[in-house]
Design the sequence.
């Protein structure tokens, strides 16, 4: 497309926002807005942040901003006026304030869905979160320890969440989710050639497939041909059957299934990738992880499944995983939405603005974690020594990730079988990574894999 045509379309897309901003200018407050610039409507600082994330300099980008404006500043990201907050106090405020609701960029809301847990507040949030927690609580997850060994993360999520076996539908979902992810943090311009536009089309295809599965499961439940606790979808379909709560709509089930598959697949696979990457370059921690898991394996009979107690013995393996999450968090940061005008640290956060927090502002802070650039799993030997709201890989407060226990089991079981059955070494020259938006090794992290015995 010629540049002049693109610029014309872009100007026409932004024109209503220019008019809207002029018409909706807010009355003056007693407290000032945070320092900073909103930049150009719709785009703001989005391209600058995305460029920094792609070059793996997002942490430095935020640090420069904090050095310039302090721990609170205003900007515009992904089509919304935004306030960026940094530090443990900011994280506590973000995770505990009733005046803030979860908020995704317009691009993420469009792709994940408007009826997912991320978009809900109050009683709606408690209702859907309760349904998900019923399925993701440890007592239920114990039943899935052995099945977790049967495939990689997307296969696991498809089986656990959808009850979907290998085949054309699963293959189509794999492709669609990969394309959807690329547009979650993108400027929300819905044109055929934009990343956001392509992601939206992939989202529609995935939602159509999942809707078909939901309707099929509903019919099977009505005919009593499947169990209400067979998978996540049957669990969600069964909500409200006792008359004590309101059933979820098909839209809510689809959107929250998309959310769980995003969270359970992409973040877990990222963590596993960077654990494998790190162990290939760290013989000391590799030996500790190997010894711990070989001791567990030696106590098992051939082909005997792991037990819950076995998983809980993998203490160093999980400490190493936590340190990977600290240094390379899969989720760079996230957003909240102000439900009303909020006064914070002498500034006003206007109603409707989004609030950005980023994990690196505490997890890579030398005042919290000594020598933060050094990789040291022993930091997590006594988690109670870590200041509250400083390690936020799973969020915090009432908004802590409901799938954190599932992530722990998935990671530990997978790594147990990897380290006890295989040896590997990196076969790539470039050991770097970019965020698009999750951390992704530059060359895809090819490895030479050798089975043991």
Sequence:
């Amino acid at each position: 497309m010629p540049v002049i045509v693109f610029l014309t379309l872009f100007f026409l897309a932004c024109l209503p926002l220019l008019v809207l901003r002029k018409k909706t200018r807010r009355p003056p407050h007693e407290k000032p807005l945070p320092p900073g610039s909103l930049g150009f409507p719709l785009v703001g600082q989005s391209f600058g942040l995305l460029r920094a994330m792609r070059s793996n300099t997002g942490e430095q980008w935020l640090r420069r901003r904090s050095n310039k404006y302090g721990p609170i500043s205003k900007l515009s990201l992904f089509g919304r006026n935004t306030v960026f907050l940094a530090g443990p106090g900011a994280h506590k405020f973000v995770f505990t304030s009733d005046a803030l609701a979860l908020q995704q960029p317009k691009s993420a809301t469009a792709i994940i869905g408007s009826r997912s847990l991320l978009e809900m507040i109050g009683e709606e949030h408690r209702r859907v979160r309760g349904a998900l927690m019923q399925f993701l609580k440890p007592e239920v997850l114990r039943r899935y320890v052995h099945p977790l060994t049967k495939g990689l993360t997307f296969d696991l999520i498809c089986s656990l969440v959808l009850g979907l076996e290998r085949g054309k539908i699963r293959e189509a979902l794999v492709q669609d989710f990969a394309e959807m992810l690329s547009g979650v943090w993108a400027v929300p311009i819905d044109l055929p050639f934009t990343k956001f536009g392509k992601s939206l089309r992939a989202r529609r295809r995935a939602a159509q497939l999942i809707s078909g599965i939901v309707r099929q499961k509903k019919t099977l439940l009505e005919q009593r041909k499947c169990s209400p606790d067979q998978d996540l979808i049957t669990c969600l379909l069964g909500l409200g059957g006792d008359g004590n709560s309101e059933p979820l709509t098909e839209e809510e089930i689809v959107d929250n299934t998309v959310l769980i598959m995003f969270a359970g697949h992409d973040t877990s696979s990222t963590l596993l990738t960077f654990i494998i990457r790190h162990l290939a370059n760290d013989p000391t921690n590799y030996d500790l992880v190997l010894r711990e898991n070989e001791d567990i394996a030696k106590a098992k009979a051939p082909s005997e499944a792991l037990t819950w107690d076995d998983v809980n013995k993998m203490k160093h393996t999980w400490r190493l995983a936590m340190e990977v999450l600290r240094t390379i968090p899969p989720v760079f940061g996230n957003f909240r939405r102000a439900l009303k005008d909020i006064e914070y640290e002498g500034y006003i956060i206007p109603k409707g603005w989004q609030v950005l927090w980023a994990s690196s502002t505490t997890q890579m802070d030398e005042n919290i974690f000594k020598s933060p650039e050094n990789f040291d799993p022993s930091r997590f030997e006594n988690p109670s020594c870590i200041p509250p709201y400083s390690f936020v890989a799973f969020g915090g407060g009432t908004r802590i990730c409901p799938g954190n226990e599932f992530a722990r089991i998935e990671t530990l079981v997978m790594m147990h079988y990897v380290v006890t059955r295989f040896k590997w070494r990196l076969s790539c020259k470039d050991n770097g990574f970019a965020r698009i938006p999750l951390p992704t090794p530059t060359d895809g992290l090819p490895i030479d894999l050798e089975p043991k015995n």
The mean pLDDT is 80.
